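Form P-L/3: holo structure prediction, ligand flavin-adenine dinucleotide.
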Amino acid sequence: MTPNRRTLLHAGVSVTATLASATFAGQSPGPSDPRLPLKDDAESRAAAAQDFGHIIQRQPRAVCKPGSSAEVADVLRWAKQQGLKVAARGQGHATYGRAMAEDGIVLDLGALTAIHRIEPDRVVVDAGATWHAVLDATLAKGLVPLVLTNYLGLSVGGTLAVGGIGGSSSRHGLQTDQVLELDVVTGESVELTCSPTANADLFDAVRAGLAQCATITRATLRLMRAPERVRRYLLSYPDLASLTADQRRALDEARFDQLQGAVVPNGAGGWRYQLEAGVFYDGSMPPNDKALLAGLADKRETVSDLAFGEDANAFAKLEKLLRSNGQWFNPHPWLLTYLRGSNALEIASEVIAGLDGDDLGPLGRITYYPMFTDACRTPLLRLPDERVVFPFNLIRIPASADKANAERQLARNRILYDRIRAAGGMLYPVSALAMSSQDWMDHFGPRWPLLREARRRHDPGGILTPGYDLF
Ligand SMILES: Cc1cc2nc3c(=O)[nH]c(=O)nc-3n(C[C@H](O)[C@H](O)[C@H](O)COP(=O)(O)OP(=O)(O)OC[C@H]3O[C@@H](n4cnc5c(N)ncnc54)[C@H](O)[C@@H]3O)c2cc1C
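OUTPUT (holo model):
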């Protein structure tokens, strides 16, 4: 927005320039119309009423694609005056309507995607940028973010609002642990910079704070030197117990730079148990496979060797397949949790015994691996209180769009979540799961006052991100 338009807006004076897209259907422009890039056409509203979950639909009154932090502030100010709720939307990969606002405004951050600056230890990016774009830009300078999600098509703001876990989280925590500074616009339309030393309470409330206090417009992320290549190992096991034993051994002995794993349908009604690990290296001398795998029980390992960028983008192949066979657009009632290290094998075995291949779909999987929590310091990221926890995620990719099946899975998610909670596990709030305010209070536990106070202070009108039903 030009300074003139901003000045006029702030003075409460209507701008006379015609902005057809700024008016709502059936309403003529009035003196309080915002003259912002709002779109209320059916196509824009329908797109913002969907997400990757394809379970919840909530039609916003309009979609706004701000081009600056100041414009975000203008929209929030105006929405508050109108009594409208506002939800930021990055790439729309939430699974349960968390970036939606029924009859409100969806702030599409797709125009805030600039990579501003790359320094040897940091990158400054707009929050709408994807991790893919961040990685491309930093790799070109021989640098990479410390933690990348397995899928790079997520926005920086979208993962910082929830956590952002990846193969390096055991060493470096979640993406929210590697943020140096954030520019945000609060629910009161105030533009602020926050960091561990400036507005620290807000910094803590925004990271993994489910977008309840502010919209992130810009982030400064820590970088490290990029490894040249990744040697990747896929080891198979006959059962969950032997997989878990080797995962724990590999973790304790710090054998790999990345350690993950999964339980996947074997196509014959059973499961395959896989350890997935990567070792970074430079130059032409790959790591010694024999030494790295010595003593691990697996006998049928697969080894591959890729440039760092190719390896980080490996999920793109599956995305392409799912888009082409239509399964990307089916309902995705995912359940993502963290189990305590001390009972992960027991609880995961119990849950898996109650599932069959249909619960996940032929291309679905259960993510299951141990990680250290030492580097996880984001206050609102809730993890079981143990040094080792297991991400345990039901990545359901149904082969059909059957709504009744999705409803059944959602009901199952609730039962499984209650079981996991009772066993000391925690929710990763990107799950497709209805949560009441009381559920959220229980989830945040001792951290609830931090979020509640920050909300009271920075979004007292309660306009931000209604999709979680948090307050
Ligand atoms: C295929 C796939 C793979 C995934 N892999 C991983 C993974 O490896 N690791 C992992 O941790 N997660 C993973 N996720 C989950 C993902 O991190 C979350 O769903 C994330 O919120 C999606 O980011 P998005 O940009 O699509 O956000 P959206 O769906 O657009 O938004 C999600 C939430 O973030 C809020 N939000 C978005 N932008 C901002 C902003 N700028 N400021 C404040 N709040 C904002 C929204 O209001 C909403 O509440 C995956 C999801 C999918 C679909």
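COMMENT: The pocket of flavin-adenine dinucleotide is lined by residues 51-52, 87-94, 98-99, 109, 127, 149-151, 154-155, 157-159, 161-166, 211, 215-216, 430, 465, 467 (CB under 6 Å).
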